[in-house]
Amino acid sequence: MDAALSRFAQLSELTALLADVLSEEEVVLAVLDQGCDVLGAGGGYVVLPTADRSELRLVGAWGFADAVVERWQHIPLEAQVPAATVYLSGQSVLVDSEEQRDRLFPELAGGPLDERMSLTLPLRGRGGLLGSIGFAFGREAPLTDYELVYAEALADHCAAAIERSQLFAEAVAARAAAERSADRAALLQKVTADLAQARTPRLVAEVLVHEGVVAADAQGGWVSLLNRDGTLLELVAEAGFSSSTVERYGSLAADLPSAPTIWMHGLVPRWFESASALVAVHPELRERHDESGFEAVAILPLVVRGKGVGFLAIDFVAPREFDDDERALLQTLATLCSQALERARLHEELGARANAAAVLERIGEGVFQLDQSGRILIWNPAAARITGIAAEHALGRPIGLVLPGWDRVGNVEPERARESLRFELSGNELWLSFSAVQYPEGAVFAFRDLTGERALEVARRDFVATASHELRTPLSAVYGAARTLMRRTLDEARQAELLALIVDEASRLSAILDELLLASSLDAGALTIHVVPCETAALVRGIVDLARERAAEGIELAVSDCAPGTSCLADPDRLRQVLVNLVDNAIKYSPGGGRVEVAVTAADGLVRIAVADRGLGIPAGERERIFDKFYRLDPGLTRGVSGTGLGLFICRQLVRGMGGRIGVDARDGGGSVFVVELPAG
Fold it and tell me: Using DSSP, how many helices (H) and how many strands (E) does the chain show?
């Protein structure tokens, strides 16, 4: 009886252990380790069916020689061995002698461990049979009733744990698939945005090649397009090919039969999963493909108004099977590119007619014409309206004198569309987007005023990016913790840990929402500020003491030049909010540690509060912009510093509301100094 109790005590320990085990292999090894020990078996194994249930696969084995394990990695269902018999029948098999083993299962004659007895049991899950578990013994002494009951219980525990691990693996796979889908959606959004900025077929092709290579995790890309008169199929963008390949195959006659012209005119995608598959259809490409070193290739025609105008090739260095998702993604990219090509060609056609006088008078875009020396010959009314420079002050003058900073536009290929560029004209900031048409006698430039659009787009993009990142992180943590809590096998300590995580992340969400609401109130002028005399020194010391408790190791906080009794006129709660934000920022932007120092001084009717750090610092050109709404020095979070981009905006608005001002400067030796000045109280 004591032995039986001991066995079942061990079974309870195993149950607790399996509660935290998530992989099939870990489950099996834990079960076999204890099972062989308790039953006195010389070896044990677990087999499960393959995905198509055509055979059994060995998941884990204990006590067998490597050669035996290798021999039984895969077991046909029709094999005359206990593992297959038990899996098919659902009944346990006890072989109690060598004679019985050799008679019933001749494939096991001789036995890998010279076992005299074996016990094989089915693994039953809630959905049916999962597999088999077996133990081999070097004795013929019969198993006791307690041992048989223990073995059956062990099999049940093993089956339950395997079923949990499989469910967990399925959940992980489903989440990975969802993340891949989200990544592809984000990629398509990025491609769409990039193509919208591509004003020429060449730029469209460059976007397609580089984004297509990234999207497919490929190693090479190639885009060829028909030239203007349709006589040549010309390479316009590539990645991953040698210069010799580009030189030899970069231009082909469009009217001669060849693989590229077939691909273009065929209007259907082609998927070659290996070099041999490609060469079998197009033997003339053997030399080209051998030279490139690529194997698999996806060919997608580019079609405009039902006519092939080129093709996209995405190349891989290894053979590849193109699944439905990948094919759909690449076909979508090709479709987006085809649409962008049509837009680009239309844009070029419009540019070619840009110097027509009637159009110049009516067009909303600014248009000007330059001669070969860069002097202005035409300056249309829209150009005068946008820039504030009248035609009489522009005509005949070098463009560089009329538009300071013109070299950023003029030194590029004239036909190349440019992203918006910043200009300072008569003290005003303008963001202008240029496109151009060149001809032997000079060039015609058209430009649009994107100042208002840029401000709106920057605000929208920053808000969406910031809010999605800052909200998603705590939401993901809360969701993950809640899902984990739904498992009934968690102990109290783990439950408490997860509940604490949920509380912390919920607090973080609340703080983010509070920032957004406060920023909205400040924008609307709906926030009431009560200015009263405020004992500044005590307030500062309390803030620093609290921050010191929360600061990471390596951060030193100190208060200097803080005379007791120093008082300013402020709203105490709002001043505390401002200073807490500045101190937290100083800590946050000092990832390598260092000293954060707060000083309070009074002079000339003002109280000056300075927060200094030795952290990352702020470039001189950014020191005014960091107080703008949603502006971040590190919008890509490459430095690992999170935030909504609202903190300093809120600080500035609150300080202004209290009749003060806030600024920032560099600190000698590195770092930054933020200064708040308020009327003395």
Answer: 21, 24
Q: Is 244 found in the same domain as 215?
A: yes
Q: Which has the higher per-residue pLDDT, 117 or 640?
A: 117
Same domain for 148 and 67?
Answer: yes
Mean of the pLDDT values across residues 276-290? 81
Q: Which domain does 443 fall in, by range?
A: 357-449
pLDDT at position 73: 92
Q: Where are the alpha helices (DSSP H) in 529-594?
A: 536-550, 572-588
Distant-in-sequence, close-in-space partners of 512: CB < 8 Å, separation ≥ 6: 470, 471, 474, 644
Q: At what angle do helices 24-39 and 2-18 cross, to 10 degrees?
A: 170
What's the pLDDT at 85?
A: 92
Of 200-209, 212-221, 390-399, 492-501, the least confident: 492-501
Q: What's the pLDDT tens digit per position in 99-113? A: 888 888 887 776 554
Residue 592 lies in a domain: yes
Q: Could you say which of 351, 366, 399 is where a domain stops?
A: 351
Say if residue 361 is in the same domain as residue 471. no
Neighbouring C-beta atoms of residue 285, cutoff 10 Å: 19
Q: Which two tokens stand for residue 499?
A: 């509940």
Q: State the amino acid at position 408 in one-letter form.
A: R
pLDDT at position 582 is: 93
Backbone torsions φ then ψ of 81, nearest 5 degrees: -135, 155
Domain containing residue 624: CATH number:
3.30.565.10
**Does the pLDDT of residue 7 top 60, yes or no?**
no
Query: Which CATH number does the domain housing residue 443 bear?
Result: 3.30.450.20
The rounded distance, in Å, linking the Cα atoms of 545 and 184 is: 47
- Closest to 230 in 3D by CA, of 207, 263, 202, 264: 264
Q: Looking at the structure, do residues 514 and 651 belong to the same domain, yes or no?
A: no
Task: Say if residue 459 is in the same domain as residue 494.
Answer: yes
- Compute the distance between CA of residue 598 and CA of residue 623 in angstroms, rounded to an integer: 20
Mean pLDDT value across the chain? 81
Specify the residue for token string 């009329």. Answer: 402
Q: Is residue 279 one of the residues assigned to a domain?
A: yes
CA-to-CA distance for 101 and 82, rounded, in angstroms?
Answer: 9
Is residue 189 included in any domain, yes or no? no
Same domain as 344, residue 287: yes
CATH of the domain at 35: 3.30.450.40
What per-residue confidence (pLDDT) applies to 181? 67
380 and 341 together in one domain: no
pLDDT at residue 515 is higher than 70: no
Buried b (16+ CB within 10 A) or exposed e, 293-312: ebbbbbbbbbbbeeebbbbb
Q: For residues 440 and 544, state if they share a domain.
A: no
Last residue of a domain, which of 524, 542, 577?
Answer: 524
What CATH number does residue 488 fall under?
Answer: 1.10.287.130
pLDDT band at 637 (very low <50, low <70, confident <90, very high): very low
Highest mean pLDDT among 251-255, 336-340, 570-574: 570-574
Taking each helix axis from N to C end, the angle separating 572-588 and 536-550, rounded to the nearest 10 degrees, works out to 40
Angle between helices 451-485 and 492-524 (to 10 degrees): 160
Give domain status of residue 187, yes or no.
Answer: no
Task: Identify the band that residue 17 occupies on the pLDDT scale cut at 50, 70 and 90.
Answer: low
Q: What is the pTM of this model?
A: 0.37
Domains of the chain: total: 5
Which residues have C-beta within 8 Å of that of residue 293, sequence separation ≥ 6? 317
Q: Which of 302-311, 467-476, 541-550 has the lowest mean pLDDT?
A: 467-476
pLDDT of amino acid 11: 62
Distance set, CA 25 to CA 30, 162, 166 (Å): 9, 9, 11
